[in-house]
């Protein structure tokens, strides 16, 4: 599992992502991807890659407007590479490394949401990362039924199972 991190936004000058947080993202990714793809025909030796970009509010607002028509910053956007007509479809024959797509997070929106909801900002950041990853794997929340399934998955993957586990 490989996470390519991009922090090249000038708006992020006062935000720092720790090695610990990156390791937690990697652990969550390994757990979720192995669980979600266990019944697929994907070779277990294929290396999975995710691109994670952190943006400031201005650039996130631009992306949100361009891709969703909403002229305000958002906490997370996902751009899956393996989707056809809204359905996740990993190709049968893959060797080497495969990228699932891009997750773009605005840590400032995440921090503000955490403040408003009375949550820990790091826990909210993990939730948003899992949310973005589930989108890469074909989950959505466009209908109440889809939302119930996706929210249940998020909760399942974020339950603490013991010290050091997420």
Average of per-residue pLDDT values: 84
Helix content estimate: 40-55%
CATH superfamily: Metalloproteases ("zincins"), catalytic domain
- Counting DSSP H or I runs of 4 or more residues, the number of helices is 5
Topology pattern, helix = H, strand = E: EHEHEEEEHHH
CATH architectural name: 3-Layer(aba) Sandwich
Within the CATH hierarchy, at the fold level, what is the topology?
A: Collagenase (Catalytic Domain)
Query: How would a crystallographer describe the biggest sheet?
Result: 4 strands, mixed
**Based on DSSP secondary structure assignment, what is the total number of beta strands?**
6
Can you tell me the overall shape? globular
Rg result: 16 Å
Supply the number of structural domains: 1
Give the structural class.
Answer: alpha/beta
Which CATH class? Alpha Beta
Percent in strands? 15-25%
- The N- and C-terminal alpha carbons lie at a distance of 17 Å
The strand order across the widest sheet is 1-2-6-3
List segments where confidence is low: pLDDT < 50 over at least 5 consecutive residues.
160-166
